[in-house]
Amino acid sequence: MDIPFEVSSTDSDIRDRIIVALDVDSASDALSIARELSGNIGAFKIGLQLFTSCGPAVVREIVESGVKVFLDLKFHDIPNTVANAAVEAARLGVWMFNVHAAGGRRMMEQTIDAVEDVCNRENLKRPLIIGVTVLTSSDRNLLAETGVLSDVESQVVQLARLTSESGLDGVVASPHEVAAVRAAVPNPGFLTVTPGIRPISATQDDQKRVTTVGQALANGSDYIVIGRPIVAAADRRAALERIISEV
Question: Per residue in 29-38, pLDDT tens?
Fold first, then answer.
């Protein structure tokens, strides 16, 4: 039997918390989607596919159109390299970007220090910086393949604590671990951004730890990322409205 979820959010609040993933390979497609959905959602996500295809120019163009951009490149390298890349992300004017929390405390601390420094010197608005915990395509078997012997929730919680202690603004985690993150990191301002969101009738594709918009919000997600169920739809506005109506 389905469990009813109660979400005390207005329609406007739900829209503000939706991030649509521009998982396409051309600037023209990305800009078309942005124009189609702008004003009906909170932000757009630019990930590896679009960035590799079009470079930073498409980020600038979408930012300059007046919408918020979550730059999802999951920086993970030595601290100096990640800090320098993060500075350039800030200069692009993005609203939020992420790094892999598995990069460690020094990498995250150096990154936020470098970004705050350049934003103060160049009068830029500091973007939100969040740490990726465990990808939604991962399960315990995949973690074990890479030498991580913890279960998924324990690993997410450990990385969330590390991210908070390093001074970042929040984490990327699946909706299934949001409650555990909230319990482990009591700071109410610590954000949870959750991918793996699907309509009730959708398939899981290559993601394993997925859930619906209503469940994610009820679990405590601050922002929810939705890609294929909207972007691949013949009528994207209608697909968005159907997803919102499910809440």
Answer: 999 999 999 9
Among residues 45, 68, 74, 125, which one is catalytic?
74
In the chain, where are the structural domains located? 11-246
May I ask the CATH architecture of the domain 11-246? Alpha-Beta Barrel (3.20)
pLDDT digits (tens, 9 = 90+) for 123-138: 999 999 999 999 988 8
pTM: 0.90
Contacts 24+ apart (CB under 8 A), 137-143: 137/206, 137/207, 137/208, 138/208, 138/209, 139/208, 139/209
Quick check: is 45 catalytic? no
Cβ atoms of 24 and 233 within 8 Å: the answer is no
What are 196-229's pLDDT values in tens digits? 776 765 544 545 545 788 888 888 899 999 999 9
Are 84 and 111 in contact by the 8 Å Cβ rule? The answer is no
Helices and strands, counts by H and E, the chain: 12, 8
Helix, strand, coil percentages in the chain from 3-state DSSP, rounded to 5:
50, 15, 35
Go through the chain and tell me how many residues it has: 247
Q: Is the dihedral of CA 8, 196, 57, 168 positive or negative?
A: positive
